Amino acid sequence: MGGRAYEQYDMIAGEYARTFAGEFESRPFDRAILRSFADLAVRSGGTRALDVGCGPGEAAAELASCGLSTEGVDGSAAMIALASQGSPGVRFQTADMFDLPFAAGTFDAVCAWYSIIHTPADALPELFAEYRRVLADPGWLLLGFQTDGATAVYDHAFGRDVTLTFLRHDTAAVCDALEVAGFTVYATTKRARQAQLDEPTAQAMVIAHAGDIDHHP
């Protein structure tokens, strides 16, 4: 997500956070995926997680509740301010997810919960390589994204005039990009669109790992 999109999220941060507050309460399946991902990381000896494109911090808070020492980054300073207020036990900072301010191998798990929805498919291998860089083996990664739908361009959202393009990624193409970046896909799942939650498309979740997990109990 480029600087232009970050500026858009600065404008809509407050209403966005209100809209998705407690999102996992109404999406128990999604919460179960997130918690299973955290469990995989913990069972592999992991202790540290990073939520990239964290927004107001809902996913980061879930990871922290699972016992992982969690940090979050987002390009929107307004989102980071809201996340810091909502989850004081998690460290948040403003950063570009294509250029993460962490040394190689800093984290055991990276979560990108709807963080690739503005990233073109041809840029995914580069992005995933950056996620891979900050992971220590076996290096677990969770992606959540919209799928099975056409690209949508919004000029008004969350009560503001905006210019935002939402990309609905093909799961197979995402998995291919993960493999290019050195990941092995562990699981993929798709949840049907829930009209009562105003979801525009089906939702996909992919879990992958970067290193050998055979020797990790």
Automatic annotation (TrEMBL):
Single GO molecular function = methyltransferase activity
> From the record, what ranges are coiled-coil?
none
Please state every residue range assigned to the domain named Methyltransferase: 50-139
InterPro entries for the chain: Methyltransf_25, SAM-dependent_MTases_sf
Top enzyme class, one word, equals transferase
Name the Enzyme Commission number(s) assigned to this protein: 2.1.-.-
- Gene3D superfamilies for this protein: Vaccinia Virus protein VP39
- Protein name (record): Class I SAM-dependent methyltransferase
- GO annotations under biological process? methylation
Keyword set, alphabetical order = Methyltransferase, Transferase
Q: Which CDD domains does this entry report, sorted A to Z? A: AdoMet_MTases (cd02440)
- Which Pfam families does the entry mention? Methyltransf_25
Q: Which domain of life is it from?
A: Bacteria
Q: Tell me the organism.
A: Mycolicibacterium porcinum
Q: Where are the transmembrane segments?
A: none
